[in-house]
Fold these 2 entries.
Entry 1:
Amino acid sequence: MENLDVMVLRTLRDWRQAGERAMLATVVRTWGSSPRPIGSIMALAEKGAVVGSVSGGCIEDDLVARYTQAHGGDQHMPGGAPAFVKYGITADEAHRFGLPCGGTLELLLEFDPDPESLQALVAQLEQGQLMQRTVRLADGAVTIAPAASPAALEVNGEHLVNTFGPEYRMLLIGAGQLSEYLATMARFSGFAVTLCDPRAEYRTASDIPGVSVSTEMPDDAVKTFKPDRRSCVVALTHDPKLDDLALLEALETDAFYVGAIGSRRNAQARRDRMIEHFDQTEASLARLRGPIGIYIGSKTPPEIAVSVMAEILAVKNAVQLPPETEVARAKSLRAD
């Protein structure tokens, strides 16, 4: 599955290029609990089609009822300058719109966004460019420009600025059943996935739709992949000749997650090798994760993939996991 923001913007572009009226809704503020984070977007066509999400579904239903002819009513989508709308201000509204207790969110609604600007934005995002989209609130005029780094949404009395793309990416070292499950989970979590394995007899995940396959040696594949702050590198071969150099190369990048599968004993042996033979230190290996995953008692490849994907998403979302979820610590506690 492709990046959700790109999907929303591409669909909105297609509607507008076809001459359909449509709007773009962006979550700009939240108070208390909120189902979707600030910056989330949703596109709505006047005929009632929806892509993306700004809540758990009830607010989407209200927007469809208010701004489309989906139910055969006489309402029409307005035009003109963008408009702000709030949901969940009262307890009754929170209940009506399915917001958690105390939850309130504010949306910016842009009516009939310019299709040429959308086309230019989507084209850059499809090329892997991080982009900044600025909306002038007075009239809805949009400018786009490359962004140097990811940034949180900004809104003031004059402009809304939202940063989009590029996709989160995953590089898997080593083909096999586990990599198939993990690649599939990463794909439906919005990651672009590349599988690297120079061993032809092990490459089994090439049939997964959307997964790129590399036959380079893993350390060369890491260089080609060029991990950035939206990238993770996961070694799954259990073979030091393949895993170690790739992991060392990945640790020199801005990848938000670098880790390798294996037991507690194998993870410690890997660290010892890297310190003894590759001039590493405990400090230089601080970002190296292993054993990877969170402890859920997983034994089978699909369960292990769930465990690993959960940890990757937690790190991506800057969630501090309890120490008891670390595989090594949890197994030590159980052994005691």
Entry 2:
Amino acid sequence: MANRILVGIFIPLIYACTSIGFTPAASAEENYVLKSGVTLTKEVRAKVKKIADEYHKQTGKNITVASGTRTPASQAKAMYEKLEDGDDLKIYKDQISAQAIKKAYDEGKEKNLKRVAIEKEMTRVISEQIKAGKYISKHLRAGAVDIRSRDMSASEKKAFRTAAKQTVKSVLLETTPPHWHLQF
């Protein structure tokens, strides 16, 4: 009887979480959740766990992984959203590649193309860059994750930066959209 009650509570909870865009972390003991569709390698997952555990120890809160390893299409989608929000892509080190992707976006907008067509062209540009050995983002090589920051207070952001610096090569608080960009 008790098992049926637990299943009756637990299964709807899983469906509720996934319907709003979240998937559970590796287990109930994890101090992070993955947004729906986020992919992490085993090595990156271990690093995220270490950061999340330290952050949880300092704040009592969990973190949300908003993005992990990306395909050219998911990278195009992320960059499209940044451009829609008014970002100029100046944050990218390889400005030649970034501006080529922005050009695909700008030309699509000038032609009044639908989002799907613009993202398709941006994906083509990113794919061509990868074929040439140029990766606009470490997300494309399983070397970066984005952590949601919009629900963190100033003291929680400080605690997160401290926790992340112990594990990653680079910690950057981006504003468009607001998130922590971590590179391994």
